[in-house]
Design a protein that fits this description.
alpha/beta; two-stranded antiparallel ribbon; 7 helices; 9 strands; globular
């Protein structure tokens, strides 16, 4: 009976071995406030993933098309709020959208950015679509929420159709991305790159922690079973 119990335990260990804590959410930064054309929506679908609740903080800005698109999806609700960011406001939210108008300065308080940082490390996602000549407030915001993505400070008034996009975990089914005047970005994983630089970048919001490999666990389990068998034989 004891031997059978150990076999069950080893089976459970091996079933669990090799798994990892998966990345539950992402930070996606788009350096263009006009990048919400219909052709770009497949990327925003991927950013939302299985989420159903989207919060546009500080209002919708120039992203009314994206706001309406999310609300058109079955089972998805997008709301806009100008209220201070609190844990209560983010309860049940899957995706925060920072949807600014051109040249809009981000004025989130330290307390609000701390709440957002906690939201992200807990597996929430953030989509930021902002563009300006002066990007200082954007970089302060990103650094404060724990992101490595930064605006380079360069802006290009050109129209670019980026095809193909980079092969990443958030670009499945995305064939191209359109940007119409944009800031370039550094850091994170590039998604859409023009001749001038990266327009869209992302990074995971949670840390992947590898669990023990199957082989060492199997050896440990077999050793334990061997000890049990030897003890039973001595007892007999």
């Amino acid at each position: 009976m004891l031997k059978k119990s150990f076999l069950v335990m080893i089976f459970m260990i091996l079933s669990f071995a090799g798994l990892q804590n998966s990345h539950a959410g992402v930070i996606v930064v788009v350096g263009d406030v006009n990048a919400t054309t219909a052709g770009n929506m497949p990327l925003y679908d991927n950013v939302l993933g299985a989420g159903t609740n989207v919060l546009f903080t500080r209002g919708v800005g120039q992203q009314g098309g994206l706001f309406n698109y999310y609300n058109s999806l079955a089972g998805v609700t997008a709301t806009a709020s100008i209220a201070p960011i609190t844990n209560a406001l983010l309860a049940g939210v899957d995706l925060i959208t920072i949807a600014g108008s051109f040249q809009q300065v981000l004025n989130y308080t330290v307390a609000e950015m701390n709440v957002i940082a906690d939201f992200l490390t807990s597996g929430g996602s953030l989509l930021m679509l902002t563009e300006a000549a002066n990007v200082t407030s954007y970089n302060v915001f990103l650094s404060s929420i724990g992101s490595n993505i930064q605006y380079t400070g360069q802006r290009f008034v050109v129209f670019d159709v980026i095809s193909p996009v980079e092969v990443t975990s958030i670009t499945g089914g995305v064939s191209q991305f359109t940007a119409d005047a944009y800031n370039t970005l550094s850091g994170g994983t590039a998604v859409a790159i023009t001749q001038n630089g990266t327009v869209v970048a992302f990074e995971n919001t949670t840390t992947t922690v590898p669990l023990p490999e199957p082989a060492p666990l199997a050896l440990l389990g077999l050793g334990l079973i061997g000890l049990v068998i030897a003890r039973r034989r001595r007892a007999q």
